[in-house]
Amino acid sequence: MNKNYIIKVKDILKIIKGNLIIGNEETECETFITDSRKIRDGEIYVGIVGETVNGGVYFEKAFENGAIGVIIQNINITEQQKEKYKDKIIIKVENTLLALQKIAEYKRSLYGENFPVIAITGSVGKTSTKDIVANVIAQKYKTLKTEGNYNNHIGLPLTLLKLKDHEAAVVEMGMNHLGEIRVLTNIAKPTLCVITNIGTAHIGNLGSRENILKSKLEILEGNNKKEIVINNDNDLLNKFNKEKDASIQTITYGINEEAGVYATNIVEEAESSKFICHIGNEQFEVTVPVAGKHFIENSLCAAAVGNKLGLTKEQIKKGIETFELTKKRMDITELKNGAKLINDSYNASYESMKASIENLSKYQGRKIAVLGDMFELGEYEKELHQKVGKEVVKNNIDILICTGKNAKQIVETAQKERMNNQKIYYLENKQQILDLLKNILKKGDTILLKASNGMKFYEIAEKLK
User: Fold this and answer.
1) Domains of the chain: which residue ranges?
2) Angle 309-147-285 (CA atoms, 0-180°, nearest 5)?
3) What sign results for the dihedral spanned by CA atoms 376, 382, 386, 387?
4) Contact at 8 Å (CB) between 31 and 56?
């Protein structure tokens, strides 16, 4: 690693005004972690204080697992412990979460304001867009990207603290409430922002799609250039683009609305799609290795970002055609009995439910939708679950299986829309779903698993596999 990027204990003490209980100020701190069970030799353990547990109580376990140092809050260190760990680092701070964020902000600053950081947010598709964008950029630059769902006030700092000899970073920013993306963007200081869409995810917390847009636009506060890539097909983003302040520069992509990066000659198949990608005066054919219109949109977004960062059309094409999705998102598996399983169980909103059902409809053979509750919809939960039921019928799904309190609305709406009642099942739990599937599944069937993560539909996927 470039020595200019190295953080030492003395830097941490200066950044967070910590109290060094034991340790050498010249010790280098390369990797930080918040789970004492996953510590590897030489890492720094940060004991985050949660609602019920102070992670600092595990600092000795962290040392046993190889930590070189710990950052803790509200933990008393005895003289015996000081002697026992005299070759380690112990730093006490007032707030370990704030300390983690401040260290990450400092690490980001070491790379300079021109170091490419692409920040991605949106109601749906953040992670899949992140995966495609990162793979495109990686065709030219050594790229760090958010792993899994590390997109919150803890995950984003941990991601940035993994910066080493990278030449670019792609970070995902999630939120449940107003003000949360503001914190993240001021840590990451993105050079280019992306908003994939404004839908209904977390509308129960925010009250309206307009408030969701407001919370997403906080992403610009950490971006000095005020440059943002947006999906111009989304109604609220389209409106924002027309009414925005002159200081904000937008790069648009889309399929239906006029945009700077757009697709024509779209051919959608069950497990992939292809189209002609247009960027300015250039055009090229590209194949997306995952099905669904939303993945065409995500690919257009990646093309827009890649073009902005100076990639060639050949590099953009390769990046799109070779990307891999984060697990649990459109994870397709052939089961032993010849049926096909689409595990899209990580999370769900109305928009992502609609997209997954539309994709399921493109498969040959029987199409089976196993759907559960969507969370954080507040007063909109009944209406949006009913809309999912209409999508099931509209897309000619053969068998509907539901569980969950609000998923009853999906079932009842499908019945009202005249779906064959003998092809509709409402069950009490996941075990009943498994038992039913084992009885009815046959070669050629395609099963979609889709619900909010709290429904734990991934357990069904694992048992089916």
Assistant:
1) 3-96, 111-321, 331-464
2) 45
3) negative
4) no
How far is Cα 341 from Cα 334, in angstroms, rounded to an integer?
A: 6
Residues 6 or more apart in contact with residue 327 via CB below 8 angstroms: none
Q: Are 196 and 129 in contact (CB under 8 A)?
A: yes
Question: Is residue 130 within 8 Å of 168, Cβ to Cβ?
Answer: no
What are the strands, taking DSSP E only, across 225-354? 227-231, 249-254, 261-268, 273-279, 282-288, 331-334, 340-343
How far, in Å, CA of 444 to CA of 435, rounded?
Answer: 19
Q: Give the C-alpha separation, 424 to 195, whole Å.
A: 37
Radius of gyration, CA atoms only, the chain = 24
- How far apart are the C-alpha atoms of 11 and 262, rounded to whole Å? 46
Residue 298: name the closest of 117, 131, 116 by CA.
Answer: 131
Cα distance between residue 69 and residue 32, in whole Å? 9
pTM (two decimals): 0.86
**In this structure, are residues 251 and 227 in contact, taking their beta carbons and an 8 Å threshold?**
yes
The CATH number that domain 3-96 falls under is 3.40.1390.10
Give the contacts of 98 (CB within 8 A, at least 6 positions apart): 16
What are the tokens at 219? 């992403």
pLDDT tens digits, 429-449:
999 999 999 999 999 999 999
* 411-430 burial: b if 16+ Cβ within 10 Å, else e: bbbbbeeebeeeebbbbeeb
The CA distance from 360 to 413, in Å, is: 19
pLDDT tens for each residue of 279-333: 989 999 999 999 888 899 999 999 999 999 999 999 999 999 999 877 656 688 9
Fold of 111-321: UDP-N-acetylmuramoyl-L-alanine:D-glutamate ligase (3.40.1190)
Q: Which two tokens stand for residue 205?
A: 């917390």
If we measure between CA atoms, which residue out of 375, 357, 358 comes closest to residue 452?
375
> Domain 331-464 class?
alpha beta
| C-beta of residue 410 within 8 angstroms of C-beta of residue 388 | yes
CA–CA–CA angle 342, 296, 381 (5° rounding): 60
Q: Are 200 and 209 in contact (CB under 8 A)?
A: yes
